[in-house]
Write a structure and sequence with these properties.
By secondary structure, this protein is of the alpha+beta class. It is about 35% helix and about 30% strand. The longest helix has 23 residues. The protein is globular and about 65 Å long.
């Protein structure tokens, strides 16, 4: 089986890239090691930047976002028992939209399958052999082994995938920071406490309160990195969420049935070597951000846009200059998102027992709520920096 672009991984990066390539007349095969039900139901991120929403409408998969997406102008910050709203839309324009990643993935899968384009589920890539003019993939499918040849490979299969492992160790330039905390996340049948998402800064650590609809909330607690979920009963979770979100200007946090629990460690990672020959890394295969800034999904989509431009230019003109510049084109936006996520993480979390730490964090929070200049700077990144596009989208 031959294709122009073999895409490993049917997450936001891989499926968005496939959709953009299809609309340029470039053939691709998407290989996903899980089954369709798994990728369409696994709980992931839920905040889309304005450029991501605009792109989904542009490629024709925005109907679900229009029907079910919850438009937000910014977010709430609560500290010292007082709640503040940061209205970024008023200052910089655009919106953030709450729309679960699994629903976006389902929309993109439906679009691809409905268009008759190849998407192989339960297809595990065993090896990649890249050459100067193409690549050969060995794939295990439920029907047996399959060999795929391609002009290019897009590795969208995450940090532990075969794509990143294919990079020669001596060529990799990467950076990593591991935080000593994790997020204990829940989904609950409760009414959202504020009209938009809220970060609560507290001496015990952050609590985060967002929504997945008018009657379902997604909430998080900062916990030690080595936390055992089994040690956290529903009652203990609600007690700590209530303590950290206590205020004098809003009702007490509503409690309800918790129907999902998860634990996510916090870390930052960037592999600046985002390409090796005919292989390109996208999304979590190349970078991971703490969830504080809600940037992971949006960076994956940004990578897909950049690579689609470069591949479109290659097949249109035969020139490889945009492909050669893929890493250097993606990285500025990635590092800006990493800086934003790290800044929010260090301001909103309790990462030190030093009493001075809380005073410095409180001072920064106070600047956020008092200064429109500070809010504008936050809003530009939170609502979404433009996708890299230094050349015209090929017709």
């Amino acid at each position: 089986m031959h294709t122009q672009v073999a895409i490993i991984g049917a997450g936001p990066a891989g499926l968005t890239l496939a959709a953009l390539l299809h609309r340029q007349g470039i053939s691709s095969i998407v290989l996903e090691r899980h089954d369709r039900t798994y990728i369409e139901t696994r709980t992931r991120a839920g905040i889309l930047e304005q450029p991501t929403v605009d792109l989904m409408h542009e490629i024709g998969v925005g109907d679900g976002i229009t029907r079910e997406g919850m438009v937000h102008n910014g977010f709430y910050v609560r500290f010292d028992r007082t709640t503040h709203h940061l209205d970024f839309t008023r200052l910089v324009g655009g919106h953030a939209t709450v729309y679960p990643q699994q629903k976006l993935v389902a929309d993109l899968v439906t679009d691809r399958v409905g268009g008759g384009e190849p998407l192989l589920f339960e297809a595990s890539v065993r090896s990649i052999d890249t050459t100067t003019d193409g690549a050969r993939l060995q794939v295990q499918t439920p029907e047996g082994p399959l060999e795929i040849t391609a002009d290019f490979v897009a590795g969208c299969d995450g940090f532990h995938g075969v794509s990143r492992a294919h990079l020669p160790a001596d060529s990799v330039r990467d950076f990593e920071r591991t935080y000593p905390v994790a997020w204990l996340g829940i989904l609950a049948h409760t009414t959202p406490t504020t009209p938009e998402g809220m970060y609560c800064a507290h001496e015990n650590g952050i609590s985060v309160h967002s929504m997945r609809g008018p009657n379902i909330t997604r909430q998080y607690l900062q916990v030690p990195a080595d936390t055992d979920l089994g040690d956290w009963s529903d009652e203990r979770i609600w007690d700590e969420l209530t303590l950290r979100s206590a205020s004098d200007d809003f009702p007490v946090l509503e409690r309800g049935e918790i129907f999902d629990k998860s634990l996510a460690p916090l870390r930052s990672y960037v592999c600046e070597t985002m390409q090796h020959g005919r292989l390109f890394l996208l999304g979590d295969a190349a970078h991971i951000v703490p969830p504080t800034g809600a940037k992971g999904l949006n960076l994956a989509v940004s990578d897909a846009v950049t690579l689609s431009y470069a591949l479109g230019a290659f097949y249109l003109t035969g020139g490889s200059e945009h492909l050669d510049a893929y890493s250097s084109t993606c990285l500025p936006r990635i590092w800006k998102a990493q800086h934003f996520s790290a800044m929010l993480t260090e301001t909103l979390h309790s990462l030190s027992a030093d009493p001075l730490d809380w005073q410095l964090r409180r001072a920064r929070l106070t600047r956020w709520v008092e200064s429109e200049h500070e809010q504008s700077a936050l809003g530009e990144v939170y609502l979404g920096l433009p996708f890299p596009s230094p050349w015209q989208y090929p017709a």
